[in-house]
């Protein structure tokens, strides 16, 4: 355990505690974000903090301290912890208040910031690709808000683990949305596709970076809805996320995806992402070199 920020103080994590009446505990009434750290530097910090602000506004939660101040707190913790490869975990709840469904007046936020391990995916999955399954998307209708109520995501990811898969891809009314902890991309011929930013997907930071890299390097991209049966016929599939980076998917529901190996567009984007982050997929690159 290391240092954490909790409600105005930087303390040892072993000494951190919150009230049993905290609305994050009682109602899952809060938001969070996770920022990847490469070489001691937070990756896309501004985008993550902007998403934190958007999530807060979506549930009528006023950030105090502000997102900008939370960013400074995170940077301070990084220096204190001398963290090189890590993640920054941020959680803000509406705070402690008598139990009532309505938003309380006068409650003070509970703000928590901690430096965690990097949670990098296994290098053999980056090199050879991973498995995924599809599951019904039974989440609430505001998946774009990064709230701490993640029961459906937990059950979906657990179903993937039980099936020996890396990720569970959500399907709503026949259409692919996103995944338990990632966004989903598919390659059809020379075109890269991903679901558009609506209330039914999380607006992933790594998703946005991947689209930028693709467009900057002449890869045809389209943000449009596609059906689960189309996904099953894709030439390549990969998922993106803060902790997983760009993860190739080579089997879906037990069936081979495309040629059954990491495809050329996926590999190219992994290489570009490594350059952008300064080594996110370095293990895979080293493995490919052999």
Structure description:
- There is one protein chain.
- The protein is an alpha+beta fold and 290 residues long.
- The protein is 31% helix and 28% strand.
- The chain has nine helices and 15 strands.
- The chain has helices at residues 23-27, 45-58, 67-81, 123-128, 151-162, 205-216, 228-231, 264-277, 282-289, and strands at 3-6, 9-12, 30-38, 41-42, 86-93, 110-116, 130-136, 167-172, 175-179, 183-188, 191-194, 220-223, 236-241, 245-252, 255-256.
- The strands form two sheets. Strands 7, 8, 9, 10, 11, 12, 13, 14 and 15 form a nine-stranded mixed sheet that branches.
- Helix 2 crosses helix 3.
- The two termini are 37 Å apart.
- The mean pLDDT is 94.
SS strand fraction: 25-35%
- Category from helices, strands and their pairing: alpha+beta
The helix count comes to: 9
Measured as a percent range, the helix fraction is 25-40%
Rg is: 19 Å
User: Could you give the count of β-strands?
Assistant: 15
Largest sheet: 9 strands, mixed
Give keywords.
nine-stranded mixed β-sheet, alpha+beta, 28% strand
Care to give the gist of this entry?
By secondary structure, the protein is of the alpha+beta class.
